[in-house]
Amino acid sequence: MPNESTPSGRTGRPRSAAADAAILAATRDALVELGWSKLTMGDVSARAGVAKTTLYRRWAGKNELVVDAVAELFDSLELPDRGCLEADVENVVLQFAALLRRPEARTALMAVVAESTRDPALRDRIRSAIVDRQKRLVVLGRERAQARGELPREPDEAVAERTTDLIFDVIAGTVVHRALVSSEPVDDLWAASFTALLMHGLRGSAGA
Amino acid sequence: MPNESTPSGRTGRPRSAAADAAILAATRDALVELGWSKLTMGDVSARAGVAKTTLYRRWAGKNELVVDAVAELFDSLELPDRGCLEADVENVVLQFAALLRRPEARTALMAVVAESTRDPALRDRIRSAIVDRQKRLVVLGRERAQARGELPREPDEAVAERTTDLIFDVIAGTVVHRALVSSEPVDDLWAASFTALLMHGLRGSAGA
Amino acid sequence: MPNESTPSGRTGRPRSAAADAAILAATRDALVELGWSKLTMGDVSARAGVAKTTLYRRWAGKNELVVDAVAELFDSLELPDRGCLEADVENVVLQFAALLRRPEARTALMAVVAESTRDPALRDRIRSAIVDRQKRLVVLGRERAQARGELPREPDEAVAERTTDLIFDVIAGTVVHRALVSSEPVDDLWAASFTALLMHGLRGSAGA
Amino acid sequence: MPNESTPSGRTGRPRSAAADAAILAATRDALVELGWSKLTMGDVSARAGVAKTTLYRRWAGKNELVVDAVAELFDSLELPDRGCLEADVENVVLQFAALLRRPEARTALMAVVAESTRDPALRDRIRSAIVDRQKRLVVLGRERAQARGELPREPDEAVAERTTDLIFDVIAGTVVHRALVSSEPVDDLWAASFTALLMHGLRGSAGA
DNA sequence: GATTAAACGAGACGGTACGTCCGGTCTTGTG
DNA sequence: CACAAGACCGGACGTACCGTCTCGTTTAATC
Prior knowledge:
The structure is a homotetramer.
Chain A: H1 17-34, H2 41-48, H3 52-58, H4 62-74, H5 85-101, H6 103-116, H7 120-148, H8 157-181, H9 188-200
Helix pairs in contact in A: 1-2, 1-4, 1-6, 4-6, 4-7, 5-7, 5-8, 5-9, 6-7, 7-8
The structure holds a DNA duplex.
């Protein structure tokens, strides 16, 4: 995960595993203190107690480094069984909002996405390190709801995948937009409104 | 809009109005060619045939400049009456997706949002120049649907505003996430699926 | 003299004259403290209170900078009339030796000559800034000796120039070799021996 | 000669003798191709097919390595008996000039001398490896000339040594200065002029 | 023949300097 | 006063070498 292009040769001094961890931790610290745009490679290497060359030997640049540093934050998201689909959705929305309140996640996520618009390799990295990994939450939530009888089973595999993607984009996109673009708080009330909308649609009940 | 702190003095040579337009156009061109991160103030000033000092006299920095340069792109979004709510939603989704296919919008939008996580003034500028202006589309769509009887009228003004915000975040956020984070195409099929979900909710019909 | 390729454009802010002087002085200080090989451009710019870019705008690199910084040291050499040729020669030998005792001259002179073996432009710069300027001492000494009747007049101009060059190489080369290669002191005794040899040749008198 | 501090332990794998030769040859090659300042230890080790550690085990640094690599070039100088002192001097001048036309000698000699101005150990190494070894030429030439009756015998040993040193500095210094500082060719004509001056002194004959 | 201890290749490591680029400010002269 | 031009200070960039350090692998001399 951490490195760039492993030389895989078995001769020579092996790369320090401790350095990887120190660098990623230093990167997160620097993101908290400085934010994306003022984070510098030199500063990260200094914080990690590591030479700049060591850093560049493993990551091609700031973008790749930050994606890896931030990706694992998303692994903390969980989906405990709250008994019904509404509660599960509301819970994951609030968890995600809490994550987006962390300064390192706020500043880094949008920045790497912005950079990725011009860099296909970075785009792939984001997808594999963040997006695809968190789709597990949607998959799990759907299976659970289907087991409860709250949602019908998908007969077709391809349709199931497209639905997973759609739900993921709706939930993640809406929360990110609320939190970072509209800059409004994601609180319990809003989470309930959003969950209701997601459950019943615009025409469903009152609409709010 | 363009300037930073109006000098308001009535004496001396007045600022060139042509310069503003040239600078914003140059900024958009540079965004297309270079993307956000490689765009430089010096380059913009050179493209615009303007001295760097002239540029800094009007905008405080790259962030402010790019917000202004990009904001007006969003004004091109329209909401022609397609006869029913589904069609109106689907249309605005596809329009927004087309906008996000423009390189200057792709690269700039996420970048300024990323910067805004650490800069309240920039956050406000984004909100007033982009977010709030485009909420008109939701307001208009809702009013039209209510006139058609597709949606109930909101008795309470505050609730109406919260609903507007929510719908805006859902639509804009989901499309942005699909296009820029998941990096998947927003085509007619997807737009239809998303619209269906938005109309009827997860429990509504088939769920896709 | 100081700069590299004067832009000669008359618009824009003119280059600071004070910066040139500060840079050359800083260079000499750094040579004294650090010697040629540990002198860095960054250190010079810091000592001079000047940005690195300012330094590179005027000199192409360390070599060119040091030649200019050191060249003017050689202008301190003088040739007061001591009454006879022997005394004049002995005096200039001792002056040159004193100059080569200065750390900045010692370390810089040989270093730039070493670099010049691979850089024709630097070779020319050394010749014009140092070598040719100091030949004046030989020319003056010869004229004075000829006036005194100690040396015959040269009928041919070309021969005169070749003789000037030869004498210059003998005196300067011998002193430099004694001081820097053989690493032996150039004291009064040695200066007298050398002068005697130069006057009368190996076969002349005792030979020492 | 090659190594730094002999380990003298009698057990363990002995140092490869072939490596020494390969390293010195690689150093000379690199000097020819790159010159002193662009020669790097890593490059030398790669050319020699040797690890950097092997190189550093034997030489303390670039300076020491280059002195050793270049010193033996000077051993090629010889003093065949040309029948008279003038001819012998002229011959050695031309030989030395030919040596200074070799790029590895040109670039290395001045560079190590420059470095030696700040490094007494290097100064000693140059003196013992180069200077003192070549004084044999002066000693031999003097003895031969004395045997021919061209020069008087020195009664005093100390005076003899001082004279040897002086003549060495005059010849070596002048040729080096002509070739490397003044950057003028050392051809037959110049060699004859210099020899004449050395024989008869400024007052001797015509002076050129 | 087994042991042993150093030399060896490979290459990662913490540093330092490089020369370039950009950000933002300032100082000219001109309009 | 605005403006074009461009010099200025500061600071980060990504690269190149430095000299050191770990690795696993030879290679002789000693046992």
